[in-house]
Write a structure and sequence with these properties.
By secondary structure, this protein is an alpha+beta fold. The chain has a single domain, classed as Beta Polymerase, domain 2. The chain is built from four helices and five strands, in the order H-E-E-H-E-E-E-H-H. Helix 1 runs antiparallel to helix 2. The radius of gyration is 13 Å and the shape is globular.
Amino acid sequence: MRAKEKKILKKVAAVIGDMKGEETLVLDLTKLTTMTDYFVLASGTNTRQVHAIAKRLEEDLREEFEIKPYNVEGMRNAQWVLLDYGFFIAHIFLDEKRKYYNLEKIWLDAPRVAL
């Protein structure tokens, strides 16, 4: 992982923590797929919190690193918000949706990244 990528992912984890997001997990997908290098998974307890975390991530990453997501999905319902930044995709879930889709199990072979 390059230094700038690590710094960005640390910022993502910090923002999620500051916003009281839960169970933040970073998966290294570099050897498993070409779609992205990393998934960041986190949960919120309600749709307001999920929406707030996603908006704050967008704002802070734009301000600090001058980057914007290529695509954002799910912001309207805020049950599963996906922010695609190219080298990483942040998935901010409502807790029950995270359990249902269980990306951790689907990507079980992906190493967990300690930040």
